[in-house]
Amino acid sequence: MDRLSRQGSFLHRMSRQDTFRVIKDQLLIKLPPPAPHDVMHDKKLALLARRNLPLSYDLKELKGQNISEMWLERLIEAARILQLTETEWYFIEDDDRGPFSPRNEIEALHALELNVRGLLLTIAAEPESPLFTLHQLVQGRLNGLKSDTTLSSKNVNPTNLQLSNWAAELGIKSMVYAAEFEGFGRGAAASTDLQTGDLVIEIPQDALISEDVAIESDMGPAFRETPELTGETMVLLWSMRERHDEKSKFALFFAALPATFHTGLGFAIEGLKELDGTLVADEIIQAREHIRTQYDSLFPALSRKYPEIFPERYFTWEYFLWACQLWYSYGIKVKFPRGTIQTCLVPMACLLNHSIYPHVTHFSRINDSNNTLQLFAVRQCKAGDQCFLSYGSLPNSELLTFYGFLVKDNPYDIIPIDLDLPNEDPKQAELIEKYDVLSYHMVRGFHPLPTKLIAALRVACMEEDEIATFQEDPRTVMISERNERDVYESLLATFDSLLEPLEEQEDDSPSEKSEETDSSDWDVLLAKQYKENQRRVLQSVKSLCISKLSSV
Predict the structure, then answer these.
(1) Which of 361, 452, 385 is closest to 101 using CA atoms?
(2) How confident is the model at residue 55 (pLDDT cuts 50, 70, 90)?
(3) Domain of life here (predicted)?
């Protein structure tokens, strides 16, 4: 299996000498520059320079609450730029200061919090100092970010209690426990008030389910004699048998897992039919075909060659699909001390549900000093509240396919638009190159149409007389009324074609499950929810086009 999910980003920690310094009468806070391998290294530095945002700040100038808040705005703006991804960069306009996305905002604030907290520890600042005030302001911003509303957790059921007790026996330290949340199913509830920087979960390396565990099991010899097996396939196969072993070290962990995963990979014919005409339907079908091809390449051959290691009753197509969904949904990329990266199942961390405003973001590196995987809180979570993790900046198509849930008004639902830009006329080609008018563009719901997209379409829709006379910047200047109408009419045609397969009957209620609906129709309901979310995104950008067209 070559694609596993829930990949945690690696926390890049600068040394204290690089991050902040006390020099003579200066108290410097230094934001780390873009990494040399960052593909936007030069763009970020150029934008910081244009906006007069340095990477070093002398905090001796902080005097009073108002000054601290002013400094905080500049620090956050610089940190936002440093944390930009290529997609976020595409949507930035000249006057856009952020926030650029939920991910960008929490990463920027988290980087600042680490920086200021480290400086506080270094100089042992007093509570009344400006630096202490700045730290409180940063934490206030972090804790003030939007949170997913969840009802209080219900009573812990026996399976969840057994899971927590089992984890403790394995040496897993956890400030969360397994609980049920309405609308989310099982999740992780904070057992105490968590503050920024608190250790949420600490898992010993030997409690991780990894490729090493599979190879060191009695299945190891068969794995070694089958060179075409990747490490990720090995743990898949190991999981298929281990879930049935009541004597396994991980028996209680497997017992607490869902017997059936409700992800897009498990859609039946009716669910796929409901998605007919959407791009995600093709993605699901291709993913299932890939998994099925992989299974057929392994079985029944392995069962015939190693009947005791791969008994047929445990290695059916249904169990293989279950294992794939398990690892797609719960697998975390972990970097081990020896430098290798393996996909692992991480007990207790698997309980953390996804949110675009999470309490935990950075993980996936084994701590060399004590051989544990540690998850820290980036912002506070009250006792009894659900503690969330970020699975990444994932669109609903990916969440549907590999996780089986959706985020309403998902800010990462990006609609790609690939333009066929003209290149025959030298002046048009010159405009395209001069103003960096790309052929690949994007739109997102409930946001203005990107200037880059409109500029590209203006150039593409130019007529001969306009090509000969136009001397301005197409990003800021309308070429002509006719040209402008062509731009928005072409966009409307594009969005109408994308909306066509998403249209629903007026009496459909895809976001709620009626009492008469059979539970076996979960895939149809999820498909309808997906289509409704996509329809709302496209309708929002279509409405913008209609508004712009009416003003031309």
Answers:
(1) 361
(2) very high
(3) Eukaryota
